[in-house]
Amino acid sequence: MKGKSILNNMVLLVLVLLCFNGIVHVNSQKVPAMFVFGDSIVEVGNNNFLNTLAKANYYPYGIDYNRVATGRFSNGRSLIDFIANMLGVSSPPPYLDPSTTGSKILNGVNYASASGGILDESGRHYGDRLSMGRQIQNFQNTLNQYKTMMNPTELNQLLAKSMVIVVTGNNDYINNYLLPGLYASSSNYTAPEFANLMINNLARQMLALYSLGLRKIFIAGVGPLGCIPNQRATGLAPIGRCVDSVNQMIGLYNTRLRSTVEQLNLDHPAAIFAYGNTYRVFGDILNNPAAYSFNVIDRACCGFGRNRGQISCLPLQLPCLSRKQYLFWDAFHPTESGVYVFAWRAVNGPQDDVYPMNIQQMSVA
């Protein structure tokens, strides 16, 4: 059985690399629309329209995206761009862009906002941001627009067949719980209590999306944040090691999230909720980077200080040249090569990667 597992992993890895290098193409449209909620991992420019320090609307962000900084926190495409392509739909436009109206919203909308989290207070030191609560309110505004464009039956079918991607929870740790000088959460809650607080809030938010008509909801877990350049730069772990205490906190949250997804499916058999095992996918890359063509996993491609993670990528800074070989783009975010691996495995991977079914299976269910 162990040999079969290794073989399956090797086949999966070959497919991931072939797809990223453009040898395997995805064309057919599998869902009518995508709706995206979350943080900077899936943001495509909402924060460009907010009074916030959390922006990526300057070069070298976008250096590999036609050399245009769009607000994506990446050297190139974002996680959502890849998932959208694999589902055969256009990457949804940012909600706050004034041009996101009329026919432009028919294939979905992206509500994600850098520094926003599950909890309203997370990321407040950056300035304005769209928390999950505010993103859901904005989705309701989109629904009101749809009601002027189609009849109730058409709208219900659109919502039921559309794919929802939720990537959140990261800022509740790195821009809340892990900043005791700015937030009281680590004093008020133990790590298990904080994980429960997050899960209880997120469960209510997912039920709100369900109540508004959405039926196919993919929820990504939190990755090994103790391994990002920002956390390695704290000096809380030996050189070359991740901050284990942070990763242990993340483990508590992810375990509860997976259980919550199971319960949501039991309680709502007409819907499909799926848990994306972000931690496992990035753990695989960190444990065996050469297999994924990475050779730098402990420091950022663009940034300053220890591990290039103490100060994130600044305007006009010269980034590393071998960007495809770096797992991390800046202090907090993977390169487009890094997020591609997760995108592919979220869409096509086995239950160890995404449970109880992958996004491809959800799209045809």
TrEMBL record:
Keywords carried by this UniProt record: Hydrolase, Lipid degradation, Lipid metabolism, Secreted, Signal
Main location: secreted
Localization (cell): Secreted
Secretion signal, residue range per the UniProt entry: 1-28
Biological processes, Gene Ontology terms: lipid catabolic process
Record protein name field: GDSL esterase/lipase
Source organism per UniProt: Vicia faba (Broad bean)
GO function term, MF aspect, one: hydrolase activity, acting on ester bonds
CDD domains to which the protein is assigned, alphabetical: SGNH_plant_lipase_like
Magnesium is among the record's keywords: no
Tree of life domain: Eukaryota
Cellular-component GO terms for this entry: extracellular region
InterPro entries for the chain: GDSL, GDSL_esterase/lipase, SGNH_hydro_sf, SGNH_plant_lipase-like
One Pfam family of this chain: Lipase_GDSL
Family according to the record: Belongs to the 'GDSL' lipolytic enzyme family.
